[in-house]
Amino acid sequence: IASLFAEFRRETKLMYQLQHPNFIRLLGVSLKPLCIVMELMAGNLYDYLHDKSRPLNWRLRVSLAEDIALG
């Protein structure tokens, strides 16, 4: 259990340090039970990119590619 808790602390510390507009933010942690509270993301990138009712224009495609390249 000690190693599990140490791994949890390392992971949450790393996630806290990754402050970037393109990352979902770490909002908090709970020790009982061990869990991580993250910012809510509406949907997912895969579904957004494959939604045929919402075609992506080239300006948006380039913008998404730039964001991905920047991390």
What percentage of residues falls in helices of 4 or more residues?
40-55%
Low-confidence regions: none
Tell me the series of helices and strands, N- to C-terminal. Answer: HEEHH
Based on helices, strands and strand pairing, what is the structural class? alpha+beta
Q: Taking Cα atoms only, what radius of gyration do you get, to the nearest Å? A: 17 Å
Characteristic terms for this protein:
15% strand; alpha+beta; elongated; 3 helices; two-stranded antiparallel sheet; 71 residues; 48% helix; 2 strands
Can you give me a brief rundown of this structure?
The chain is 48% helix and 15% strand.
Description:
This protein has three helices and two strands, in the order H-E-E-H-H. The longest helix has 16 residues, at 2-17. It is an alpha+beta fold. 48% of the residues lie in helices and 15% in strands. The chain starts with a helix and ends with a helix. Strand 1 and strand 2 (34-38) form a beta hairpin.
Topology overview:
Elements: H1 2-17, E1 26-31, E2 34-38, H2 45-49, H3 58-70
Antiparallel strand pairs: 1-2
